[in-house]
Amino acid sequence: MSNRLERLIDQGTGRMPADIVLKGARFFDLVTGELVASDIAICGDRIVGTGSSYVGDTEIDVTGRIIVPGFIDTHLHIESSLVTPHEFDRCVLPYGVTTAICDPHEIANVLGEEGIRFFLDSAEQTIMEIRVQLSSCVPATHLETAGADLPIEKLLPFRDHPKVIGLAEFMNFPGVIHKDPGCLAKLDAFYGDHIDGHAPLLRGNDLNGYLSAGIRTEHECTTADEAMEKIRKGMHILVREGSVSKDLHALMPIITERLSPFLALCTDDRNPLDIAEQGHLDYMIRTAIAHGVEPLAIYRAASISAARAFGLRDRGLVAPGWRADLVVLDSLENCKAEMVFSAGRRVTDDLFATRKPVAPVGLDSVKARPVQAMHFGVPFSENETPVMGVIPGKIITEHRRFRLPAAGNQAGVDLDRDIIKVAVIERHGKNGNHANGFVQGFGLKKGAIASTVGHDSHNICVVGVSEDDMALAANRLGEIKGGFVVVEDGKVTGEIALPVAGLMSLEPYEVVRDTLHDLRQCAYALGTTLEEPFLQVAFLPLPVIPHLKISDRGMVDVDRFELI
């Protein structure tokens, strides 16, 4: 260590050439908001010099460019990018995201401890720094069958891993408020460490009780009013813009210089096609600035404020002694990364080639029984039938009720009102459960779409107009070991195989990106107008909570809760 420190000091003082010097740029000072003309000297993984002229063993001319700290995605599930951590690294790091704080909640709900180990092993090899929050809700709910169970005893062995930050999003907020013993055991074990929040629509005294358990961050705010109450009560708000959940525009009123120390950015779920077409956190930054947000506020949220919220005290500023995670931009407004440095290393294809592979896991996790068209029937009723209502751009759904037409002794779809069938099929080989219902808002006129990505328990979810097509789509998922399938008139017209736990591809992200483009066109041919039909299918198994109310039983009020 002393030799390393001597090198850092000598290069910072200019007594010896720096390893790397970025010449001729301006950097964005996130303390003062100034653009400062300066060389930037790097020794190993640290910045050692600013505000002066330096000589380096390697000198890179970045004249006319602006340098900012690397971006930090504060909450995401890498599995929802549909690629492995290694491919996510290669896909996202060139956009300037040098740190990703992930919750392997999806693979943990399929594989348990094996899934968490896979992510920790991967995080030790990636060029971007991946930090892991230990999944707090496995299973996510007792109302659906997951593939694993992670009580506190199974989480504690991972607690001291160098890549672990703390406890991931605590979704069971009714369990917190009503002191469920399993919830309290996890919260008590991580009390004083970082505990990530997840409490959509929670307000007032119930929010106070939730926060009193030591929870400090929240990515589920969908209105500025909700976000402001949570900020006033000490929460750090993670502004989210993903492939399905799009909250950036609604939360822009709170992205100000005054509030920026209490804000960060996250994507939660974003796939390679959206990244290729729009970008990642860079998309959020330029979109916010284009709508009038102060550059200082949004760049703080993307780096230094995010770092402080999660206890990453070595990054987020362009300053001596700080980690050399740097993004060279064309301009603050365009936020186009022209060069990226991760821990002092210039990001190139050759750098990615130095990583060691990590063996995939969960290649035989789809164990669903074959189904037939007759398994998708719903008995006809003269009364109103519950229908899930899709809200475009949101993962939350509405509880609606309609009188449906009869098809013999079965309830039928109603295309005039955009009501089609939905089913969830247990795929972990536990009990073979199968539940059917109806959904409104997909726009399908024919065919079916099926997925083994089904938050949060990741059973098979299939929507469709034709029961024959629904059966074909669901069975095809077993043959390809998980993924997405589109069926039209008795034929598979598109598919993507996701054999890693039924969630991630073994292919390079470019292949996944291109396949998703073709798959989306197949879905559009069925009539859907949803921007992200596959992720919308994936989120349908989540509970319907139209008007949140906590009962004295510690569950969501049964009069206002329905799981199709």
Could you walk me through the main structural features you see in this protein, from its secondary elements to its overall organization?
- Helix content is 26%, strand content 24%.
- The chain is an alpha/beta fold and 564 residues long.
- It is globular.
- Helix 12 runs antiparallel to helix 13 (295-302).
- A hairpin with a 2-residue loop joins strand 27 and strand 28 (491-497).
- The model is unreliable at 544-564 (pLDDT under 50).
How is this structure best summarized?
With 564 residues, the chain is of the alpha/beta class. The chain is built from 18 helices and 28 strands.
* Low-pLDDT sequence parts: 544-564
How many E strands?
28
Outline:
globular
Class by SSE composition: alpha/beta
Q: Give the radius of gyration.
A: 24 Å
Number of helices: 18
Give the biggest sheet.
8 strands, mixed
Helix content: 25-40%
Q: Keyphrases for this structure?
A:
564 residues; alpha/beta; six-stranded mixed sheet; 18 helices; 24% strand; disordered C terminus
